[in-house]
């Protein structure tokens, strides 16, 4: 059973609107969460992270929200741009060292011009 | 900028062949990782290494081995390739912090 779930395999959004990508996890011991973005034919690149002591982290157009009681996090992209079209992976860790990362299956975001 | 390179972008091998996937990073990172990416399953950790000649099993090590003779190089070995090892293989490195830097991936097809 997957410990990190991204229940939407794909999402389409109009340029300029908000994109919301969701991620759910089952292990309440996870204490660090990341989002990675992956373009075709490239490796994933780190986007934004959040530790369990926070409920929000913001970096430019990207904001990650964490709801520990619901074991849910979301990535908001505002405003969405065509260049944001990619696969987004959510990942969770039991420590901030990285060897215990568990990745979700990814959500493919398409931002339509 | 950190650069992680992988020896091949595409590879086609026959069942039973021994396969070597090479990964090199140029930022003196301590930690290196091998993942495989399959549709609907995300990235799954095969092996990782925290230092030269050190290795640790990840979530799915069966059928794979690794070698780290030099700090910058981490090799993934499929001793006898099987069709269920057809996948995208991603190498990553990190310097003790949480962010991992990924290579472009090797798409391996085993026929």
Give structural attributes:
heterodimer, A: 113 residues, mainly beta, six-stranded mixed beta sheet, 11 strands, 53% strand, globular, B: 111 residues, seven-stranded mixed beta sheet, four-stranded antiparallel beta sheet
Account of the 3D structure:
The complex is a heterodimer of chains A (113) and B (111). Chain A is an all-beta fold. In chain A, 0% of the residues lie in helices and 53% in strands. Chain A contains no helices and eleven strands. In chain A, a hairpin with an 8-residue loop joins β9 and β10. The N and C termini of chain A lie far apart (37 Å). In chain A, 36% of the residues are buried. Chain B is mostly beta strands and 111 residues long. Helix content of chain B is 0%, strand content 53%. Chain B has strands spanning 4-6, 10-13, 19-25, 31-38, 42-49, 56-57, 65-70, 73-78, 87-94, 101-102, 106-110. In chain B, strands 2, 4, 5, 6, 9, 10 and 11 form a seven-stranded mixed sheet that branches. A four-stranded antiparallel sheet of chain B has the order 1-3-8-7, with no helix packed on it. Chain B starts with a strand and ends with a strand. The model of chain B has no long low-confidence stretch (mean pLDDT 92). Chain A binds chain B through residues 2, 4, 6, 9, 32, 34, 36, 41-46, 49, 89, 91, 93, 96-99, 101, 103-106, and chain B through 4, 9, 31, 33, 35, 39-45, 48, 50, 56, 58, 90, 92, 94, 96-105.
Summarize the structure.
The complex is a heterodimer of chains A (about 110) and B (about 110). By secondary structure, chain A is mainly beta. Chain A has strands spanning about 5, 10-15, 20-25, 30-40, 45-50, 55-60, 60-65, 70-75, 85-95, 100-105, 105-110.
